[in-house]
Amino acid sequence: MRYSLLSRFRGVLVGSFLGEFLGTGGLYEPVLGNCSLKLPQLKESQSHPGLSGWSEIAACGSESLIRCGRFDLEDWVNRCFAPEQSLQSPKATARSSEVAVAMLPIALFFHEDVVKLRRQVLEAAAIWQHDAQISEGVLAMAYAISLALTEKLDCAGLIPQTIAYLGTSKTPLVQQLEKIQVLWEQGASLEATVTHLYRGFQRPNQLFTPVTDISIALAFYCFLDTPEDFRLCVSRASLSRYQSQMTATLCAALSGAYNSVLGIPVDWRLGANRLGIGIERQQLADKLLALWSGVYSISEQQQQQILSVAAPREIR
What we know:
Elements: H1 5-23, E1 27-31, E2 34-38, H2 53-68, H3 73-80, H4 96-102, H5 104-109, H6 114-125, H7 136-149, H8 158-166, H9 172-186, H10 190-202, H11 215-225, H12 230-238, H13 244-259, H14 266-275, H15 277-293
Antiparallel strand pairs: 1-2
Helix pairs in contact: 1-12, 1-13, 1-15, 2-3, 2-4, 2-15, 4-7, 4-13, 6-7, 7-8, 7-13, 9-11, 11-12, 11-13, 12-13, 14-15
């Protein structure tokens, strides 16, 4: 195994925060060899700097899974949409990319069984989206993450495998992904890719419906273009100029699953830890993995320090 599953879980949750932070206007500067994160202006409804309501729903959803030991839709809704949370209304229509961020804990918890993954993702996504075709984007991102977690992700075959998993043809998302595959194989630049997709979005015959966005397709492109370099692919996604926050968040989640938390630059991880969110995300990842692996009662475990993991006889 290239990376431990724990390291990949952490990569998804910590990475998604860093991607969202950069995409929303957070900046980083080298200060004495470390990382000083500049906080974007905080909205009144946000309890954490740089986080959208969708990212906070993902955190609440993780806590619901940990507490219930399974996906419980009623508990998920009650916890995520309590009046004091001030998060996105479950009755509101959402973009696929936004819901895909909220579904990250489900993608982690059910990554090993793609049949159950489909069922649980569609059930949870129906809170906002009642059109299965619109939910394709959510399912596509969850499936791509599951491939990375199980070490079955092949860059050349990622999009064809994802389209085959969706089991649909000529839907807006499938057409976007097919275009991304062609542009990636041709070595098209990010600017050319964004322009090509956006022009399709603007056409009178409406290749893309108003409730469909291209953030998920762009996240796939940015990841595929530099799959081994977390810093580069996320930085480019944050500069995509089209819903940069969601594009960078999803690109970072996928790259984090593929490269693990070890692939995230150390200075970025230290910056996230100084804000407290990096440590919170690692703890959520640890508990989700423990629950997935069969630990009897997560709630009864005492909070422990983050463990050091290495090959045999390496730690002294």
